[in-house]
Amino acid sequence: MPETILVVAEQREGKLNRVSWETIAAGQAIAAETGWSLEAAVAGSGVGTIANEIATKKLAKVYDVESPALAPYTPDAFSAGLKQFLESRKPKLVIMPHTYQVRDFVPKLATAMRRTVVSDCIGFRKDGDRLLFTRQMFQGKFAADVSFNCDAPWFVTFQNGAFRGDRSQAGASAAPVETVNVDIPAGTVRNKPQEVFKEAKQAVDLTQAEIIVSVGRGIKEQKNIEIAKQLADALGGEIAASRPICDSGWLPMDRQIGSSGQTVAPKLYLALGISGAIQHIVGMKGSRSVVAINKDHEAPIFEIADVAVVGNLFDIVPALTEEVKKAK
Q: What kind and span of H or E run contains 8?
Protein backbone atom coordinates (compact mmCIF):
# COMPACT_ATOMS: atom_id res chain seq x y z
CA MET A 1 0.00 0.00 0.00
CA PRO A 2 1.40 3.43 -0.92
CA GLU A 3 1.68 6.16 1.69
CA THR A 4 -1.13 8.71 1.78
CA ILE A 5 -1.14 12.47 1.43
CA LEU A 6 -4.19 14.12 2.95
CA VAL A 7 -5.29 17.63 2.00
CA VAL A 8 -7.44 19.28 4.67
CA ALA A 9 -9.53 21.80 2.74
CA GLU A 10 -10.89 24.85 4.51
CA GLN A 11 -14.50 25.85 4.74
CA ARG A 12 -16.04 28.55 6.84
CA GLU A 13 -19.77 29.06 7.33
CA GLY A 14 -20.47 26.44 4.65
CA LYS A 15 -18.31 28.01 1.95
CA LEU A 16 -15.10 26.52 0.57
CA ASN A 17 -12.11 28.84 0.74
CA ARG A 18 -10.75 29.03 -2.82
CA VAL A 19 -7.17 28.80 -1.53
CA SER A 20 -8.00 25.13 -0.86
CA TRP A 21 -7.71 24.52 -4.62
CA GLU A 22 -4.09 25.68 -4.35
CA THR A 23 -3.49 23.17 -1.57
CA ILE A 24 -4.98 20.40 -3.71
CA ALA A 25 -2.64 21.45 -6.54
CA ALA A 26 0.25 21.17 -4.06
CA GLY A 27 -0.91 17.71 -3.03
CA GLN A 28 -1.16 16.61 -6.64
CA ALA A 29 2.38 17.83 -7.32
CA ILE A 30 3.77 15.98 -4.29
CA ALA A 31 1.83 12.82 -5.20
CA ALA A 32 3.29 12.94 -8.72
CA GLU A 33 6.83 13.15 -7.29
CA THR A 34 6.43 10.49 -4.61
CA GLY A 35 3.89 8.07 -6.05
CA TRP A 36 1.84 8.40 -2.88
CA SER A 37 -1.95 8.30 -2.88
CA LEU A 38 -3.77 11.65 -2.57
CA GLU A 39 -6.94 12.11 -0.54
CA ALA A 40 -8.79 15.14 0.84
CA ALA A 41 -11.00 15.93 3.80
CA VAL A 42 -13.28 18.76 4.83
CA ALA A 43 -14.49 19.17 8.41
CA GLY A 44 -17.72 20.77 9.57
CA SER A 45 -21.39 20.13 10.08
CA GLY A 46 -23.49 19.51 6.99
CA VAL A 47 -20.58 20.01 4.58
CA GLY A 48 -21.38 17.12 2.25
CA THR A 49 -21.97 19.51 -0.65
CA ILE A 50 -18.47 20.92 -0.21
CA ALA A 51 -17.04 17.38 -0.08
CA ASN A 52 -18.76 16.60 -3.38
CA GLU A 53 -17.35 19.81 -4.88
CA ILE A 54 -13.83 18.77 -3.86
CA ALA A 55 -14.46 15.28 -5.28
CA THR A 56 -14.44 16.71 -8.82
CA LYS A 57 -10.65 16.91 -8.56
CA LYS A 58 -8.15 14.11 -9.23
CA LEU A 59 -8.21 12.44 -5.81
CA ALA A 60 -8.38 8.85 -4.59
CA LYS A 61 -11.01 9.70 -1.97
CA VAL A 62 -12.70 12.56 -0.13
CA TYR A 63 -13.79 12.47 3.50
CA ASP A 64 -16.69 14.47 4.91
CA VAL A 65 -15.70 14.78 8.59
CA GLU A 66 -18.91 15.56 10.47
CA SER A 67 -19.93 16.63 13.95
CA PRO A 68 -22.46 19.19 15.24
CA ALA A 69 -19.60 20.52 17.40
CA LEU A 70 -17.72 21.56 14.26
CA ALA A 71 -20.27 24.28 13.52
CA PRO A 72 -19.31 27.00 14.07
CA TYR A 73 -15.53 26.84 13.82
CA THR A 74 -13.55 26.64 17.08
CA PRO A 75 -9.91 25.55 17.48
CA ASP A 76 -10.89 23.14 20.27
CA ALA A 77 -13.46 21.28 18.16
CA PHE A 78 -11.40 21.21 14.96
CA SER A 79 -8.25 19.96 16.67
CA ALA A 80 -10.19 17.29 18.60
CA GLY A 81 -12.21 16.16 15.57
CA LEU A 82 -9.27 16.06 13.17
CA LYS A 83 -7.06 14.29 15.72
CA GLN A 84 -9.64 11.52 16.01
CA PHE A 85 -9.98 11.31 12.23
CA LEU A 86 -6.22 11.32 11.53
CA GLU A 87 -5.50 8.65 14.13
CA SER A 88 -7.97 6.35 12.39
CA ARG A 89 -6.70 7.00 8.83
CA LYS A 90 -2.92 7.39 9.52
CA PRO A 91 -1.82 9.51 6.54
CA LYS A 92 1.89 10.10 6.02
CA LEU A 93 1.56 13.81 5.14
CA VAL A 94 -1.18 16.29 6.02
CA ILE A 95 -1.18 19.55 4.07
CA MET A 96 -3.34 22.61 4.62
CA PRO A 97 -3.56 26.20 3.36
CA HIS A 98 -1.71 28.73 5.52
CA THR A 99 -4.83 30.70 6.45
CA TYR A 100 -5.80 32.47 9.66
CA GLN A 101 -8.09 29.58 10.58
CA VAL A 102 -5.43 26.90 10.05
CA ARG A 103 -2.85 28.97 11.92
CA ASP A 104 -5.32 29.09 14.78
CA PHE A 105 -5.87 25.35 15.26
CA VAL A 106 -2.97 23.45 13.66
CA PRO A 107 -0.44 24.13 16.47
CA LYS A 108 -2.93 22.67 18.95
CA LEU A 109 -3.65 19.69 16.69
CA ALA A 110 0.02 18.90 16.04
CA THR A 111 0.93 19.29 19.71
CA ALA A 112 -1.92 17.00 20.76
CA MET A 113 -0.52 14.37 18.38
CA ARG A 114 3.09 15.07 19.48
CA ARG A 115 4.07 16.06 15.97
CA THR A 116 5.68 19.00 14.18
CA VAL A 117 4.36 21.60 11.74
CA VAL A 118 6.41 23.08 8.92
CA SER A 119 4.41 26.21 8.19
CA ASP A 120 4.07 28.84 5.48
CA CYS A 121 5.92 26.82 2.83
CA ILE A 122 6.42 28.12 -0.69
CA GLY A 123 7.46 24.84 -2.31
CA PHE A 124 8.91 21.36 -1.92
CA ARG A 125 11.46 19.07 -3.52
CA LYS A 126 12.43 15.43 -3.26
CA ASP A 127 16.00 14.67 -2.21
CA GLY A 128 16.51 10.91 -2.48
CA ASP A 129 14.08 9.38 -0.01
CA ARG A 130 13.52 12.68 1.80
CA LEU A 131 10.84 15.29 1.21
CA LEU A 132 12.14 18.81 1.72
CA PHE A 133 9.79 21.74 2.22
CA THR A 134 10.92 25.28 1.40
CA ARG A 135 9.99 28.16 3.66
CA GLN A 136 11.15 31.74 3.74
CA MET A 137 13.09 33.18 6.64
CA PHE A 138 14.02 36.69 7.80
CA GLN A 139 11.10 38.29 5.92
CA GLY A 140 11.94 36.55 2.66
CA LYS A 141 15.65 37.35 2.59
CA PHE A 142 16.54 33.64 2.77
CA ALA A 143 14.84 30.37 1.96
CA ALA A 144 15.44 27.15 3.92
CA ASP A 145 14.73 23.54 2.95
CA VAL A 146 13.26 21.72 5.96
CA SER A 147 12.70 17.99 6.47
CA PHE A 148 10.84 16.10 9.19
CA ASN A 149 12.63 14.18 11.93
CA CYS A 150 9.55 12.67 13.57
CA ASP A 151 6.99 9.97 12.95
CA ALA A 152 4.00 10.56 10.70
CA PRO A 153 1.70 12.29 10.27
CA TRP A 154 3.74 15.25 9.08
CA PHE A 155 1.93 18.59 9.04
CA VAL A 156 2.66 21.21 6.37
CA THR A 157 0.93 24.47 5.49
CA PHE A 158 1.46 26.18 2.13
CA GLN A 159 1.53 29.92 1.62
CA ASN A 160 -1.22 31.51 -0.41
CA GLY A 161 0.01 31.74 -4.00
CA ALA A 162 2.69 29.05 -3.69
CA PHE A 163 0.68 26.89 -6.13
CA ARG A 164 -1.86 27.77 -8.81
CA GLY A 165 -5.37 26.71 -7.83
CA ASP A 166 -6.53 26.85 -11.45
CA ARG A 167 -3.96 24.18 -12.27
CA SER A 168 -5.40 21.62 -9.89
CA GLN A 169 -6.30 18.62 -12.02
CA ALA A 170 -9.88 17.48 -12.43
CA GLY A 171 -10.60 13.78 -12.10
CA ALA A 172 -11.82 11.60 -14.95
CA SER A 173 -14.77 10.86 -12.67
CA ALA A 174 -15.86 12.03 -9.24
CA ALA A 175 -13.80 10.66 -6.34
CA PRO A 176 -15.73 8.56 -3.83
CA VAL A 177 -16.94 10.51 -0.79
CA GLU A 178 -17.07 8.89 2.66
CA THR A 179 -18.84 10.50 5.61
CA VAL A 180 -16.94 10.09 8.87
CA ASN A 181 -18.73 11.05 12.07
CA VAL A 182 -16.37 12.08 14.85
CA ASP A 183 -17.33 12.13 18.52
CA ILE A 184 -16.40 15.40 20.21
CA PRO A 185 -17.39 15.11 23.89
CA ALA A 186 -19.34 17.84 25.64
CA GLY A 187 -16.99 20.21 27.36
CA THR A 188 -14.30 19.96 24.67
CA VAL A 189 -15.14 23.39 23.32
CA ARG A 190 -14.23 25.91 25.99
CA ASN A 191 -15.45 29.08 24.33
CA LYS A 192 -18.48 30.36 22.50
CA PRO A 193 -17.56 32.07 19.25
CA GLN A 194 -19.32 35.28 18.33
CA GLU A 195 -19.64 36.83 14.87
CA VAL A 196 -16.43 36.90 12.84
CA PHE A 197 -14.59 40.07 13.82
CA LYS A 198 -14.02 42.77 11.25
CA GLU A 199 -12.11 45.90 12.16
CA ALA A 200 -14.42 48.02 10.05
CA LYS A 201 -17.35 47.55 7.70
CA GLN A 202 -15.06 48.05 4.73
CA ALA A 203 -12.60 45.42 5.95
CA VAL A 204 -11.68 43.06 3.14
CA ASP A 205 -9.96 39.72 2.76
CA LEU A 206 -7.57 40.53 -0.07
CA THR A 207 -6.59 36.86 -0.41
CA GLN A 208 -9.94 36.33 -2.17
CA ALA A 209 -9.53 39.25 -4.63
CA GLU A 210 -8.89 38.41 -8.28
CA ILE A 211 -7.71 41.94 -9.20
CA ILE A 212 -5.69 44.21 -6.91
CA VAL A 213 -4.48 47.76 -7.55
CA SER A 214 -1.74 48.54 -5.04
CA VAL A 215 -0.09 51.89 -4.32
CA GLY A 216 3.30 52.81 -2.87
CA ARG A 217 5.29 55.90 -1.99
CA GLY A 218 5.11 57.07 -5.59
CA ILE A 219 1.51 58.12 -5.00
CA LYS A 220 3.04 61.05 -3.03
CA GLU A 221 -0.10 62.28 -1.19
CA GLN A 222 -3.13 60.65 0.39
CA LYS A 223 -5.52 62.53 -1.90
CA ASN A 224 -3.84 60.94 -4.93
CA ILE A 225 -4.99 57.47 -3.85
CA GLU A 226 -8.31 58.38 -5.46
CA ILE A 227 -6.60 57.93 -8.85
CA ALA A 228 -5.80 54.32 -7.97
CA LYS A 229 -9.27 53.75 -6.54
CA GLN A 230 -10.84 54.84 -9.81
CA LEU A 231 -8.74 52.30 -11.69
CA ALA A 232 -9.62 49.58 -9.19
CA ASP A 233 -13.33 50.40 -9.52
CA ALA A 234 -13.12 50.33 -13.32
CA LEU A 235 -11.45 46.91 -13.21
CA GLY A 236 -13.77 45.55 -10.51
CA GLY A 237 -10.81 45.07 -8.20
CA GLU A 238 -9.65 45.98 -4.69
CA ILE A 239 -7.33 48.76 -3.57
CA ALA A 240 -4.24 47.84 -1.54
CA ALA A 241 -0.92 49.34 -0.53
CA SER A 242 2.65 48.83 0.60
CA ARG A 243 3.50 49.24 4.27
CA PRO A 244 4.53 52.95 4.25
CA ILE A 245 1.09 53.94 2.94
CA CYS A 246 -0.72 52.04 5.72
CA ASP A 247 1.75 53.18 8.37
CA SER A 248 0.94 56.75 7.37
CA GLY A 249 -2.77 56.05 7.86
CA TRP A 250 -3.60 56.76 4.22
CA LEU A 251 -5.29 53.35 3.91
CA PRO A 252 -6.45 50.92 6.63
CA MET A 253 -3.96 48.31 7.82
CA ASP A 254 -6.13 45.52 6.39
CA ARG A 255 -5.17 46.82 2.93
CA GLN A 256 -1.44 46.22 3.46
CA ILE A 257 0.36 43.71 1.27
CA GLY A 258 3.64 42.21 2.41
CA SER A 259 5.45 40.18 5.04
CA SER A 260 3.72 42.12 7.84
CA GLY A 261 0.41 42.35 5.96
CA GLN A 262 -1.57 40.04 3.71
CA THR A 263 -0.14 37.52 1.25
CA VAL A 264 -2.13 37.55 -1.98
CA ALA A 265 -2.21 35.73 -5.32
CA PRO A 266 -4.70 37.53 -7.59
CA LYS A 267 -5.08 37.00 -11.31
CA LEU A 268 -3.89 40.58 -11.86
CA TYR A 269 -1.74 42.76 -9.58
CA LEU A 270 -1.09 46.37 -10.57
CA ALA A 271 1.74 48.01 -8.62
CA LEU A 272 1.58 51.80 -8.83
CA GLY A 273 4.60 53.70 -7.56
CA ILE A 274 5.87 50.69 -5.60
CA SER A 275 9.65 50.25 -5.61
CA GLY A 276 9.51 46.55 -4.73
CA ALA A 277 11.21 46.03 -1.40
CA ILE A 278 11.59 42.34 -0.52
CA GLN A 279 9.04 42.69 2.31
CA HIS A 280 6.40 43.75 -0.23
CA ILE A 281 7.35 41.21 -2.90
CA VAL A 282 6.99 38.38 -0.37
CA GLY A 283 3.30 39.29 -0.11
CA MET A 284 2.43 39.39 -3.82
CA LYS A 285 4.94 37.31 -5.79
CA GLY A 286 2.33 34.58 -6.29
CA SER A 287 0.23 36.90 -8.47
CA ARG A 288 -0.57 35.41 -11.86
CA SER A 289 0.16 38.62 -13.80
CA VAL A 290 2.00 41.67 -12.44
CA VAL A 291 1.84 45.10 -14.08
CA ALA A 292 4.20 47.66 -12.53
CA ILE A 293 4.21 51.40 -13.20
CA ASN A 294 7.17 53.34 -11.84
CA LYS A 295 9.25 56.27 -13.08
CA ASP A 296 12.44 54.61 -11.81
CA HIS A 297 13.57 52.19 -14.54
CA GLU A 298 15.76 50.38 -11.98
CA ALA A 299 12.95 49.75 -9.48
CA PRO A 300 13.24 46.16 -8.09
CA ILE A 301 9.52 45.57 -8.77
CA PHE A 302 10.37 45.36 -12.49
CA GLU A 303 12.38 42.18 -11.86
CA ILE A 304 9.17 40.22 -11.21
CA ALA A 305 6.75 42.24 -13.35
CA ASP A 306 5.19 40.68 -16.44
CA VAL A 307 4.58 44.17 -17.83
CA ALA A 308 6.93 47.00 -16.81
CA VAL A 309 5.84 50.56 -17.56
CA VAL A 310 8.48 53.24 -16.96
CA GLY A 311 6.75 56.58 -16.58
CA ASN A 312 4.76 58.98 -14.45
CA LEU A 313 1.81 57.15 -12.89
CA PHE A 314 -0.15 60.43 -12.74
CA ASP A 315 -0.14 60.50 -16.54
CA ILE A 316 -0.52 56.78 -17.17
CA VAL A 317 -3.14 55.66 -14.61
CA PRO A 318 -5.95 58.13 -15.52
CA ALA A 319 -5.48 57.27 -19.21
CA LEU A 320 -5.52 53.55 -18.41
CA THR A 321 -8.71 54.00 -16.36
CA GLU A 322 -10.43 55.71 -19.29
CA GLU A 323 -9.41 52.92 -21.66
CA VAL A 324 -10.76 50.29 -19.26
CA LYS A 325 -14.07 52.14 -19.04
CA LYS A 326 -14.29 52.36 -22.84
CA ALA A 327 -13.68 48.63 -23.19
CA LYS A 328 -16.68 47.74 -21.02
A: strand 4-9
Rg of the chain (C-alpha set): 21
Q: What are the tens digits of pLDDT across the range 193-214?
A: 877 665 544 457 888 899 999 9
Distant-in-sequence, close-in-space partners of 299: CB < 8 Å, separation ≥ 6: 274, 275, 276, 292
- Per-position DSSP letters for 255-284, written without gaps between them: GBBSTTSB----SEEEEES----HHHHHHH
pLDDT at 203: 59
Domains in the chain with CATH codes:
4-181 (3.40.50.620), 206-327 (3.40.50.1220)
Task: Note the pLDDT tens digit of each residue in 86-121.
Answer: 999 999 999 999 998 999 999 999 999 999 999 999
CA distances from 166 to 22, 29, 152, 272 (A): 8, 13, 29, 26
Q: How many CB atoms lie within 10 A of CB 155?
A: 24
DSSP tag of 236? T
Collapsed DSSP state (helix, strand, coil) of residue 12: strand
145-152: average pLDDT? 92
Of 67, 73, 15, 16, the C-alpha closest to 45 is: 67
298 contacts: CB under 8 Å, gap ≥ 6: none
